[in-house]
Design a protein that fits this description.
The chain has 421 residues and is mainly α. The chain is built from 13 helices and no strands. α8 crosses α11. The N and C termini lie far apart (45 Å).
């Protein structure tokens, strides 16, 4: 065994054995992470319903909730990204974070009651002004979403570190982690909107989400007991080796970029996230005239969008690490996504006619949402695929420009949080 391999084995936690080359253990972990992401989406749907009953079903209330989600998620992802870069046991960190997410969801119920009482007391004084009303909604949203959002977004960079430890695999690992998060969120959103919330109500949805989150955390504990631990452990198992990848030294990287270039990259990421969600709002409003604005229809539309993003992420994840400069390809993908979104508006009459032809399926229990799914796919799929394909390249661009500065982790984490929100 080489010196680096001996050092890696020595760094393993006591009681864990080297992971043998196998697809079973990584597959189980990915399934558990999908379960965790689905649980987060189910809890988010129930939490939004409770939050809206007090803050209102308005665009201002939704914006306040999304603002808190983005800020809290960025902070959580940035902290976890920095922590996981030096953590010798990322699997333990992932397990603790997933378990903490479930506990945070429970704690947020009590915190929300406190912030709701403050909200109701201060509303007659501050609620009549636009600034005061938005500030009170921010306070209410912070009590409901801040802590769970921070812990949920923290799991993405930790899983990325568990997949690959070397810089040359950072694009693939981050893209795959982000794709799993989007796919699981799409699954949870679709199930919550069409089955769980209509059947079980808000309280049943929350209990279902907590149960799934607990299953995901308990499964990760069992996998760690079977020896899945260490930076790059998943990549090592998939590659057919018995030891985790060597942890790279920060001194091996080129110097960090200038503040101006880092700021420009951050602005580009923020603009990309703003554009992506602008497209979603445009499609959601357009599809509402075709499929309606019921909870089931809107959840189906959102799930299709997230699933298309995830598919694009998976397709381009392997490409990210092969490009020394991803910006030309990134610009082409963003341009194609914009053109596709513009062209989709010319398909609205045809999509409406297509939906009308499928309306007999609405009376069939197992196929009632199929017309909405097909209508959403027709409008969103090409452009959403290009958007998803650009996500790993954005992360790779941050690594190329910002390594080894903490800004690398900060910008990528902020972008993750913005898109998850």
């Amino acid at each position: 065994m080489t010196e680096s391999g001996s050092a890696t084995v020595a760094a393993r936690p006591a009681g864990t054995a080297p992971v043998r080359a196998s697809f079973l253990v990584p597959t189980v972990l990915f399934a558990l992470y999908l379960t965790h992401a689905a649980a987060a989406a189910i809890l988010a749907v129930g939490a939004f319903r409770v939050f809206s009953l007090t803050a209102g079903f308005t665009s201002g209330a939704a914006c306040s909730a999304l603002t808190i989600l983005a800020i809290a998620g960025a902070l959580g992802a940035a902290f976890a990204g920095v922590r996981s870069r030096h953590a010798p046991a990322p699997m333990a960190l992932l397990t603790l974070t997933e378990a903490g997410f479930g506990l945070a969801a429970l704690v947020s119920v009590g915190v929300f009651r406190v912030t709701r009482a403050v909200y109701l007391v201060l509303w007659p004084v501050l609620g009549h002004s636009a600034v005061g009303g938005f500030g009170l909604r921010l306070l209410l949203a912070a009590g409901m979403f801040a802590l769970p959002a921070a812990l949920y977004c923290a799991t993405i960079p930790i899983l990325s570190r568990l997949i690959a430890a070397r810089p040359e695999g950072a694009g693939l690992s981050l893209g795959f982690s982000f794709g799993l998060s989007l796919a699981g969120s799409a699954l949870g959103l679709a199930v919550a909107g069409t089955l769980v919330l209509p059947s079980l109500g808000v309280r049943g949805s929350i209990l279902m989400g907590l149960a799934l989150a607990g299953i995901a955390a308990a499964g990760c504990v069992l996998l760690r007991q079977r020896g899945l631990e260490g930076p790059g452990a998943i990549g090592a198992a998939l590659a057919g080796v018995d030891v985790a990848a060597e942890i790279p030294h920060l001194g091996e990287h080129p110097p960090a970029t200038t503040t101006a270039r880092a700021g420009a990259l951050g602005a580009a990421m923020a603009l990309f996230a703003f554009t992506a969600w602008g497209f979603l709002l445009l499609w959601d409003r357009t599809l509402s005239f075709i499929v309606g604005r019921t909870l089931e229809a809107r959840a189906t539309t959102g799930a299709v969008f997230l699933l298309a993003l995830a598919l694009g992420v998976f397709l381009s994840s392997a490409l990210a690490d092969r490009l020394k400069s991803p910006f030309a390809v990134l610009a082409a993908l963003e341009g194609a996504a914009s053109v596709g979104a513009y062209a989709s508006m010319y398909l609205v009459p045809q999509v409406a006619l297509f939906y009308l032809k499928l309306t007999p399926l609405l009376s069939r229990p197992g196929l009632s949402q199929l017309p909405a799914v097909l209508a959403a796919l027709t409008l969103m799929l090409p452009s959403a695929l290009f958007l998803g394909a650009a996500l790993p390249l954005l992360g790779q661009g941050a690594r190329v420009l910002l390594r080894p500065a903490p800004g690398d982790v900060a910008w990528r984490s902020a972008f993750i949080a913005g898109l998850i929100a």
